[in-house]
Predict the 3D structure of the following.
Amino acid sequence: MSDNDTHTSAVRLDGVTKVYGEGSAAVHALRGVNVAMAKGSFTALMGPSGSGKSTLLHCAAGLDTPTSGRVLLGRTDLSSLNEKRLTELRRERAGFVFQAFNLIPALDVLGNVTLPLRLAGKRPDRTWLSEIIDRVGLRERVHHRPSQLSGGQQQRVAIARALVARPDVLFADEPTGALDSRTAADVMRLIREVVDDVGQTVIMVTHDPVVASYADTVLILADGRVVERMPAGDAEAIARRMISAEVA
Amino acid sequence: MIWLALATLRDRKVGFVGAFVALFFACAVVTACGILMETGIRGHAQPDRYAAAPVVVAGANEVSRTDTTGEDTLWAPLPERASVPDDVAALVAEVDGVTRTEWLDPGMALGVHGPGHPDDLAARVADVLPADVLTAYTGRGRGAAEFPDQAESQEFMLALSGSFGGIAVMIAIFVVAGTFGLLIQQRRREIAVLRAIGATSSQVRSMILREIQLVAVVAGVLGVLPGVVVARWLHREFVARGAIDPSFELAIGPLPALIAVATGLAVASLAGWTASRRASRINAVSALGEAAVERTGLGKGRVIASIAFLGLGVMILILASAAGGEDAAAGPLGAVLMIVVAVALIGPAVMRLVVRAVGNLLIRLAPTSGYLAVASLTSGTRRFASAMAPLLVLVALAGVTIFFHTTMADNADRQARSGLLADHVLVAAPEEPGVPDGVSAQVRDLPGVTAVTEVVHTGITGYTRELGETVLTSMVAQGVSGDAVQAMDLDLRAGSLDELTGPTVALSTLAASAFRADVGDTVEVHLGDGTPMELDVVAIYGRGLGFGLVTVPDDLVRPHTTSQLTDQVLVNGGDPADLDGVLADYPEVVAVSGDGYLDTLGELREDEAWINYLVIGVLLVYVAVSVVNTLVISTGERARELALLRVVGGSRRQLFGMLRLEALVVAGTAVVIGTIAMLAALIPGGIILAENPIPGIRPLIYAGLVAVAALLSLGAVLVPGRLLLARQLTVASER
């Protein structure tokens, strides 16, 4: 599949740059990124701290605005959207999972999962909701508060919430960063299943080669550019490439 | 752990700003009150002309007695000043060691000269003076003799600063405690880390306390100066409005500042102690987990304390109703304070109840923002309760202070209107001391005049019983001459006014309960100038607020007033034209109709309310700062939550809606409970003092109070909310 294949891309960035600050204090987080992620693909963004991987995710998801360049979500150019349309787009077409603080402490599991629908004023699709709840294995805990759940369970709730609106893309920013390796593996298997079973597009930032190995494709960033694109393969290979990217 | 406290303060300036602001303003208000109080205690004007003599003999300005146990001193200011008769002046001249006497003010003040210490001379002079009525003043005391209005100004200052300061300290405790509670909540993780690396819970506790005390001292010291400015401003206003004598100067010493800083420290330590108890219970493992969620349920201590305060409030009301006299008026305010404390202590439970009650309605009105608001209100009851408490204090105390006055004014007006039978009232023209003696005799001879009653307004000081102890109580008194029964209907309950001649007294029901006296008993009093006297109770009447708590014969009390003049002449029957004919010879007297007279009295009572508005105004600024402070901190704490809500698809409008509903629930709770607390004081207060349960609430002022509460709450949530919602959404993914 080609980077230029607009019709099958779920997300596509054309010449995206991002500069924070001005003048001599300016930080170039992204220096012209051209990438496309196909529908149904699972992409891991890797790179050392400050390489721009999180900025890339934020720009792709419409949480942050590029300084220049174009971000397409499906066929929608994000730069053409105002605040209100962006909110609606996030609500309907994007799902988010962060490292921590993913959940509203005031709401129970069900409340958190259905929150995007409620904000959109939509009724949940009962079958789909039920399927998601089962998939993340939280049927017994739908009325628990986040504080009553373990870290892994909280991440599962976040994933369920990210999926509830059947988004075009699920954006995950270090989704296992706060978990131990066994729980992390459970969460990654869950994400992998979602990609394989329902064809969910996933873009994930991680620094952990083991976590990245669950993806289809790994993009390695360094100094605001994509320096390497490789099939995920095994963790060891990823780790070697990472080291060489850092040295380079 | 002081080094850690210092390092934390340096490092977390922002988190402490809230606590600092609360303590800074608390200290400013307490300093202002302290200055007013010190002025009240020792603010004698320097003697000017009277400084010419080492000892000055003049009318007593206070009466004091040592009680039977010899421990407590009973004290009361005197409303009138006795003159110094010539025979007394002659006796003084004969006193051992007196070399020379001179009239400083003829008949009013006698300067006494002689060798030796003035106090010794004064002690010898005092032996020949009539006890309680005349006093030998020395030193600064001569200023009090020269400027007799001072005693009144002094009492005004003491009463005002006492209640004002008390309320300010109360609010400070709530606000500071609330702010610290939030601060601890914000620092759960940090405290958990400290616990994890081996800090004991008492070390954590002492760290928190030290930080808080440091902040308190710094804020306190800085708050002194604005306190002085506020005190000066209030003093200027009091003088400008005639509440205190212009010669009564502000006494600014170091003591109020020290007390204010110490109070701030004490309040902070108390609040910090509670907060640090919670902090030291934070367990290392649990706090490092997901975003902190509030502990639900109340501590047993809070519930017990709350019940105790509620009981105390009820007890105060019961005692006040038994106390009678004007002291009964202190009951409602005290009771309201207790009720407010009781509610604030169980604030989180109250918020929970409120949310349960209105939750469904909110969700029905606004499905999305209502749902979010109810969820956050339910899980954050403690946070919202600490914003609610100062608003509650504001509504309840401002309401009681303002409307207690209007309730009493309404009742006094009602009693006076239904009790005044006279057709015309002769009063002194503005700036004139009183109605001259000849007037009533001439009016009595006019055709159609059926009754003429001379009235003098003064005060008596009575030995009353309070909690089983004898105390001195000042009471408003009227002296009336023979025809009183026709001029006024006092709503007689027992006895008869016909026997009101000689050393007798008619007591209002309020005064009767203060004296524990009935018709036929004898009560012990001091007349206006201090003259001690025993009076036989001949009647009990109901309209004490409208006419005066006690009624005595005019000829008994008038010689014991400063001016010795009649204040009003009440006339039944007669033609206004004939009255005007008589008054043509007396330009210092004017005639008004009964209704006109009552209207003037009503206006005077409304004018007295300004002082309440002034003080409430200052408190309002303080509470406003506190509420804004608490809400700004607690909203700022939610940056991540708001960003997350935005990321998962919440529009700004929805989130604003949520914040708005939260703010309205907080304000609404404060208004409803504050109003209930206010009514709980006003209704019994009205029944006790005027046998009338209807409170004199002014709808416009009440609406203003409600609006202020709502606006404060809304503004303090929506302004920081707007800033937070304008922030980058990437906040949501910060680690």
